[in-house]
Write a structure and sequence with these properties.
Keywords: Isomerase, Signal. It contains 2 helices and 35 strands. A hairpin with a 4-residue loop joins strand 25 and strand 26.
Length: about 350
C-alpha cells in the first residue's frame, strides 16, 4: 500500500488529527524550557517510563569511579530513580537485581517491565541479555519476569494496547553482536512474535500512536554506525510496517515522545569516518540539540525554531500532562560530558 493511501485510511479510523503548526514568530511565545530538579547522578543511555505519576529510570550508564568503571568513566547501574511529579522530587527506588545499561522500561498493566539491555565488565562492556524484571509497587522490589525469546538491547520499547513491544536493536547472530530486525511483544503471560522491522537498526526512538508505533532514525552497526533518516510505522491491527517520510537529517541516540497528537524528537549523535594522509582511518563525532516535530496526518516533519538547551544524546523523553520531560544524556558522543539535567518542554 502506498504511503499516502495508508495514512489517509489510517487517519479515518484514528484520532490523530494534528493541531495547526505554529509559525516561527509565534512558536517561542507558546513553548518554553523549564529547569527541573537534577538527577542524583549523571546518567545516559536510558529508556525511562511513567508509572503511578512517577518518572521511572533504571539500568542506565552512570558516572563511576575509575576502579569500578567498565566504559571510560562510566559503568552499568543497578540504581532505580523515581521522580514524583506531584512533589517534584527525586528519590531512590528499589534497586535492580543486576547491573544493566541500555535497559528498556515499559509501563504495563502489571507494573514497570525492565527488558534486556547490556551487562558490562572491563573486558566486555556489551554483553547483551534476555532477562526481564517487573516492578509492580514502587515501594516494593523487582521480581523476575518471563525472559525475552533471545537477547536484545538498544531496541525500540513501546506499549501498544495491553502489549509491551520490543523492536529491532542489537542481538546475537552467528555468535556476534549485531543489528537484528526481531520484533516481539509480551502480553502479560508470554512473548510472541510480530512482523520484523524492515530495516534492522539500533539506537532509534519508538513512540506509540493510536493502534501502532513509529520507529524513528537509528543507526546500522555493520555500516560503521551509519545514521538513518528512515521512519517506519507499525500497524498492530494488520501486523504490518509502512515507511513514512524520513526525518530532516540522519541521527541516532535520539529521544522521542508524543504530545497533542504530534511526535517530538530530540538530540542525537553521529559518527563519521575518513582516511587521513597517512592512510589511517579516523573517526569524527558530533552531537545535536535540534527538536523535530512530526504530524502523522500530513506525514511531514519540521525542525522547530526552539532547540534543546545543550547538545545531548542517550537521553530519555517522557510525555506528561505538563509537557515533555527530557532526562540525562551526554553532551558529547560516546560517554563524555554525561549530565544529570532534567528539563520540561512546556506547551502553553
Amino acid at each position: 500500500m502506498k504511503r499516502r493511501v495508508f495514512i489517509r485510511k489510517f487517519a479515518q479510523f484514528s484520532l490523530l488529527a494534528c493541531s495547526p503548526s505554529l509559525l516561527a514568530s509565534s512558536f517561542h511565545n507558546n513553548v518554553n524550557w523549564i529547569h527541573k530538579p537534577r538527577l542524583p547522578k549523571q546518567v545516559q543511555e536510558l529508556y525511562p517510563c511513567l508509572y503511578n505519576n512517577n518518572l521511572v529510570l533504571a539500568g542506565a550508564l552512570e558516572q563511576s569511579t575509575i576502579e569500578r568503571a567498565t566504559m571510560g568513566i562510566m559503568d552499568a547501574s543497578s540504581a532505580c530513580y523515581l521522580f514524583d511529579l506531584s512533589k517534584q522530587v527525586w528519590r531512590l527506588g528499589p534497586e535492580l537485581p543486576v547491573k544493566r545499561h541500555h535497559l528498556g522500561l515499559i509501563t504495563t498493566k502489571k507494573g514497570v517491565l525492565a527488558i534486556g539491555g547490556f551487562a558490562a565488565s572491563k573486558s566486555n562492556p556489551w554483553q547483551v541479555r534476555a532477562d526481564t524484571f517487573v516492578l509492580s509497587n514502587l515501594e516494593d522490589h523487582w521480581h523476575t519476569s518471563k525472559p525475552l525469546p533471545n537477547p536484545q538491547a538498544e531496541s525500540g520499547y513501546v506499549r501498544i494496547g495491553d502489549n509491551a513491544h520490543v523492536i529491532s536493536g542489537r542481538g546475537i547472530v552467528h555468535g556476534h553482536l549485531t543489528d537484528i530486525n526481531s520484533h516481539v511483544f509480551f502480553d502479560g503471560t508470554k512473548w510472541q512474535q510480530a512482523a520484523p522491522l524492515p530495516l534492522a537498526r539500533n539506537s532509534g526512538a519508538c513512540v506509540a500512536m493510536s493502534s501502532g508505533c513509529l520507529l524513528i532514525g537509528g543507526r546500522i552497526q555493520q555500516k560503521r554506525h551509519q545514521n538513518q533518516t528512515r521512519v517506519d510505522f507499525y500497524d498492530q491491527r494488520t501486523d504490518k510496517w509502512f515507511e513514512l517520510s524520513p526525518t530532516p537529517f540522519a541521527s541516532s541516540g535520539i529521544a522521542a515522545a508524543s504530545y497533542n497528537n504530534k511526535v517530538y524528537v530530540f538530540g542525537g549523535e553521529q559518527y563519521n569516518y575518513s582516511i587521513n594522509r597517512a592512510g589511517l582511518t579516523t573517526m569524527h563525532s558530533k552531537t545535536f540539540k535540534q527538536v523535530w516535530e512530526y504530524c502523522f496526518t500530513s506525514d511531514k516533519w519540521q525542525t522547530l525554531p526552539i532547540s534543546m538547551t545543550s547538545t545531548r544524546h542517550g537521553l530519555g523523553a517522557i510525555s506528561t500532562q505538563e509537557g515533555i520531560y527530557l532526562i540525562g544524556g551526554a553532551q558529547r558522543a560516546g560517554g563524555e560530558l554525561t549530565t544529570n539535567t532534567v528539563e520540561l518542554l512546556q506547551f502553553k
